[in-house]
Amino acid sequence: MRHRVGGFKLKRDKDQRKMLLRNLVTAVVERDRIVTTITKAKAIQPLVENMVTLAKKDTLASRRQAAAYLLTPDSVKRLFDEVGSKFGQRAGGYTRIVRVGPRKGDGAEMAILEFVGTTLVKRAAERAKRREERLQALREGKESEE
User: Fold this and answer.
1) DSSP letter string over 80-114?
2) What is the pLDDT of residues 26-49, one digit of tens each?
């Protein structure tokens, strides 16, 4: 029986699972959002929340705890400078999981894990502008050949 056996194994041994979770938490802190499977998002959500709680304390001990878990010094700096100050007055619930549907390759259910209050930067207009510039350049190239 599995009474009181919690957590997610993620089909990995202990060391691989620990490193995967550390990588994902570091990525969330650095980028504000990641796209991953629902199971992985549910596994790292409490870890990310704990990192934000450490950042809100902003003591030397909490900085050392975060640095021991996160993989890059830049992520520790960003956690304490930007993320911790952003959620200073919030009592909890710093992240959310948004389901985005199945992955194209294998059909795994995907989700976005993001900090609450982050704005999505829409790059569609930039891409359309670059595409139009490329088409314009191609048209001019064809006209000069004729």
Assistant:
1) IIIIHHHTTT--S--EEEEEEEE-TTT-PEEEEEE
2) 999 999 999 999 999 999 999 999
